[in-house]
Amino acid sequence: MSFSALSAKIVVAAVSWFIVPVFLKSIVFKPPKCTSKRRLDGKVVMVTGANTGIGKVTAADLANRGALVYMACRNMDKASQAREDILKENPRANLKLVRLDLASLKSVRECADSFLKEESKLDILIENAGFGSLSHHLSEDDVELHMACNHLGHFYLTRLLLPALETSGTSDCKARIVVVSSRAHQFSPPLIDYDKLQTGKYWCYGYQQSKLANLLFVGHLNTLLGDKNVTVNALHPGTIRSDFWRNYLPNKLAYLFMFTFTFPFAAFTKTVLEGAQTQIMASVDESLEGVSGKYLLGCKIVSPAKYALDPVESEKLWRWSCSKTRLPLAI
Ligand SMILES: NC(=O)c1ccc[n+]([C@@H]2O[C@H](COP(=O)([O-])OP(=O)(O)OC[C@H]3O[C@@H](n4cnc5c(N)ncnc54)[C@H](OP(=O)(O)O)[C@@H]3O)[C@@H](O)[C@H]2O)c1
Asked: Do β-strands 230-236 and 175-180 pair in parallel, antiparallel, or remain unpaired?
């Protein structure tokens, strides 16, 4: 093969490496969008982890619909910057910041207290914050960090804010709790092994187990909510090119390597704007009025892994969570 024929082949291969995924993404794998135009004037919303990623996009979207949005964040500098960014796009956005470190039950209580000092009702609670890593750590309350942050902190926040959600919900317009889980629950062992998590024997399953816990939590909470005017649903937002991966790939070079060589797989991943659509839909869409205990993916109700619907495991998780937070079993 001549040098020029070889160079032509290399150019074609390099161009296809970038063109094919862009084509696939825009034509074949077009991510679904929340199409609801519903306004939220007069509504109060809280989004956890709203300083970046899909949480920030969600906070901006709901504020654009007229809601007062509480951005519950761990890092207040990043939260102020995120608020400024949203205000640049929409100077009328009504955004308040509240500090929340989900890995600390004390911080969760303080967050709920300061919210309840300002507001008597809450219309939508979006439990978005989350982290994933391959390491084993314990929270300040001595709970495995993925379970502490992704499940237990949100469990506690929900319980403390439930009276405010019940105050705002009506039979025509129920208050909504939206729990951001992940398809990663399908890669979890089917039962939560509290001892192995705690001792670090399950170091590589921490994230998956916590995302399974999100679904089991939704299952039992939905049963307990009964005929209250509050719904709870879970979702998988998609695989998103957000900051989420920073704890798996802490090194900037590793990041660059991953994004260059996995570029073709961009056809199967989402931007943060695309990734936020399912939780925005779960929070506002009229078609989900009164719908509870479901799991959404790609703006549609789908079935999670069978073991994520197990009522016995759901109740076990509920008991464990109540004992860790010293709350009664009944809501
Ligand atoms: N990205 C994906 O592909 C993907 C896939 C499936 C599910 N999800 C889920 O989607 C949600 C949002 O992810 P993302 O992609 O937007 O990730 P992200 O950009 O990393 O955002 C995560 C948010 O959670 C916050 N957070 C982490 N630990 C916290 C803690 N202890 N207390 C309070 N806030 C905490 C982060 O705050 P800091 O800035 O202070 O760290 C950040 O605001 C997560 O629940 C994640 O598990 C993501």
From this structure: parallel
